[in-house]
Amino acid sequence: MDALISRVAAYIDRHALLQAGDSVVVGVSGGADSLCLAHLLLHLAPQLRLRLHVAHLNHALRGAESDADVEYVSELARAWNLPSTVERVDVNAVAASRRLSLEEAARQVRYAFLASTAHAVGAQCIAVGHHADDQAETVLMHFLRGSGVAGMRGMLPRMPLSDYRALFGRAEDLRAEVMLIRPLLGVRRAEIEAYCEQNALEPRIDRSNADTAFHRNRLRHDLLPALRQINPAIDRVLVHTADVMAGDFETLAGATRSALDRVELGVTPRPDGAVAEVRFSLAAWRRLPVGLQRSTIRAAVARLRRTLRNINWEHIDAAVRVGREGATGDSATIAAGLALTVGYDVLRIGPEGSAAPGPGPQVQELVSLRAPGVTHVGRGWQVRAELWSLAEVAPAYAVNADPWTAYLDADVVGLQLALRPRQPGDRFQPLGLEGHTARVNEFMINAKVPASDRAAWPLLVSAAGIAWLCGLRIDTRSAIRPDTQRVWRVRFER
Fold first, then answer.
1. Range 367-493 classified under CATH 3.50.40.10
2. What are phi and psi of 420, to 5 degrees?
3. Which of 7, 195, 249, 413 has the smallest number of Cβ neighbours within 10 A?
4. CB within 8 Å of 327: residues ≥ 6 apart
């Protein structure tokens, strides 16, 4: 027992998992891994002055057995004099509503629960019981999926919870200040089971862990035993691979950041401030080594789809081939509705099927819009203005990824809409800047709008002032609010 405590304490120190005085939420399912983790941290708590809080989520998947797990963990927390939080979530219902596998739905609700618990109790860390055997399974699973270097790192000993953004259903569940730690990542499953036996810990048995209908269970019970017949040290090899890849990833990440500084021309923001499109210099990107071409595309996809967990290698490879060899107008599907498109001198990564690369709309003088109605504005563009109720546009507004479509509060903006070019001294309040104002010209410079396009770049205005720096950002005063009654949907179309 003392030997394992010393090893885990050394692992915690080596990877800087905990600081003296930390408040730690410990995820406890009742199984051997989490029991061992909680018991070890309980022994280390006086030495590190830790404040522990037990968290248990009932997934409502095993009926009375799940309810018995709740009672067991709650009683254990009381016996160890630890505060606890217990919640119940119908994971089957979540999987159906979000169209996820049961495994993925369980991951999302579990981490969201741990995050909300940490936030509620003011914890700096969330500790979970993943161990070395879990790491071997994870690396193998990522290898079979075709992951790159990032995936082959497996699970990290310590990471900001915000890096797990793909596991959350709601943005408010992300708490960047909370760290997710895995103190047992260097401990084998057999050692954990021996520890539980030596310390009279009686783990709950989750029979679903033996169900090979689940992907990870098939790896654990079928594939890994077969691989051990070929190489008895396969688990150690996989864990070693994760360590090597973690080091290589840091090197690649630094090179990727440097490459992005050289090739990125700018981004096109959505009206809500998120990124809608990333643009690279085609010539500069084509000069990169193929490894950096792949990693820069992955980085762009990560900015555009922050909740996307896995990017298929074949899609990235196809995008690289089109980017390297394609002619103007050629495109390749990447993932999650995104595509890479080759322009004359620009490589664009953005929504699939969006307008082809080319000059944007321009206005030379004040143009009154038919509102509602359609107004031709030149250079092959027209503006369609439609008046809707909030309920009618809510679904489309929530997923709007088109930088040339804006949803505005009609009662704030008014009913008389017009486009005009910028004027000296123009300022507005960009959405997302918490009410701060910005000069229109400086905002366009920061958004990498070509100097030749700025003078005639369209601004949507009304009697209330600038409502939308078109294609870039709406004014925060024009944004839809919960009490909005009428909505202008203003869209530029080719």
1. yes
2. -150, 160
3. 7
4. 342
